[in-house]
Amino acid sequence: MNVSDDQGREGRYVYCIIRDSEPREFSSCGIAEDGGPVYTLSSGGYGAVVSDSAVVEYWRTRRNMIVHTQVQEEVMRECPILPVRFGTIAPDADSVRHKLLDRRCGEFDALFAEVEDRVELGLKVFWDEHTLFAEIVADNPRIRQLRDSLAGVAENRSHYDRIRLGEMVADAVNAKREAESEQLMDHFRPLAYKTKTNSTLGDRMVLNAAFLVDRYRELDFDRAVRELDSEQGSRLTLKYVGAAPPYNFVNIVVSWDG
Predict the structure, then answer these.
(1) Do 72 and 136 sit in the same domain of this protein?
(2) H-only helix segments in 116-258
(3) Are 54 and 7 in contact (CB under 8 A)?
(4) How far apart are CA 80 and CA 239, in angstroms?
(5) Residues spanned by the domain of 236
(6) Domain boundary among 116, 148, 165
(7) Contact 14, 48 (CB under 8 A)
C-alpha cells in the first residue's frame, strides 16, 4: 500500500453496504497489514461493512484485492450487498454513518430494489484460434485469394501485401466478433434481469459479459451455459463465474469532502 499524508489516522475501510441496522461481525480479516476484525457501522436501517485502517492508499496488489473480495463474498453468503469500490476509506466512523449511510439512504433503497434476490453471473467466451482463422479464410474469398497469392513469395517482396492481409483479417475478426457476440447475448438475455457487455481483450475473446439474474433463474442460466458449451464443442471455450457480488451493476463511489 502507498501511504498518504494522513498516515496514522484511525479510518474505516469500507467493503460494502447491507440492509441491516443490527451490529454484526464477520470471520474475515480486514485489509490492514495486521488484519483486524470486520464488522458493521449502522445508521438509518443500513450497515456499512468495515474494518479499522489508517487513512492510506491501498495498491491493487493480489493480496489486497483478494481480501477485499473475500470480505464481500462472505457477507454476500448471509445477505444481499451493495459492493463499494476498492480502496474506499472513511476518515472516521461518524463519516461512515452520516456522510455515507444517512446521506445516501434513498440511493441505497433504489439499488437494493435492483439487486435483492438477484445474483451477478459472468461469462467470457473465447474462439479456438485455429478454428477462428480457418473460418475467416473460408468465409472471405478476398482474404483467401490474397493469402494464396502470397504462398511461396519472399517476405521482402510481399511486405505491403502481407500488411494488407493482416488488416483484412483484423477487420474480419472484428465483424465476426460483433455478429457472434450479439447472437450469444440473444441466447442469454431472456434469462437475465439486466445485462452488461465489457471490453474484450485479444483476438480470441468473443464476449465478456455480466448478467444480473433472479435467483430462481440461476439454474436455468447454468443449464443454458452447459448446453451452449456442448453445442459448440472445441470451437468455443466458455469461462463462467457464478453468484458474484453485483460489481457490474452497482458502482458506489464516495467523496468524504462533498
Answers:
(1) no
(2) 129-139, 141-149, 159-188, 218-232
(3) yes
(4) 24
(5) 119-244
(6) 116
(7) yes
Would you give the distance in Å from CA 223 to the centre of its chain?
21
Q: Are residues 199 and 223 in the same domain?
A: yes
SS3 content of the chain, % helix, strand, coil (to 5): 45, 30, 25
pLDDT at residue 258, as a whole number: 62
Same domain, 40 and 143: no
Last residue of a domain, one of 64, 85, 116: 116
* Mean pLDDT for the chain overall: 91
pLDDT of the residue at 9: 56
Q: Closest Cα partner for 122 from 254, 242, 2?
A: 242
Report the share of the chain in percent with pLDDT over 90.
Answer: 78
175 and 93 in a common domain: no
Contact 154, 252 (CB under 8 A): no
What whole-number distance in Å separates Cα of residue 50 and Cα of residue 73? Answer: 14
Which residues touch 45 (CB under 8 Å, ≥6 apart)?
Answer: 19, 21, 105
Reported as a single tens digit per residue, the pLDDT across 29-78 is 999 988 899 999 999 899 999 999 999 999 999 999 999 999 999 999 99
- Identify whether residues 18 and 51 lie together within a single domain: yes
Quickly tell me which residue has 480486514 as its cell. 30
* Continuous segment of H or E residues that includes residue 26: strand 25-32
On whether both 139 and 83 belong to a single domain, the answer is no
Q: Are residues 24 and 72 in the same domain?
A: yes
- Specify if 256 maps to a domain: no
Residue with cell 476498492: 86
Q: Are 205 and 258 in contact (CB under 8 A)?
A: no
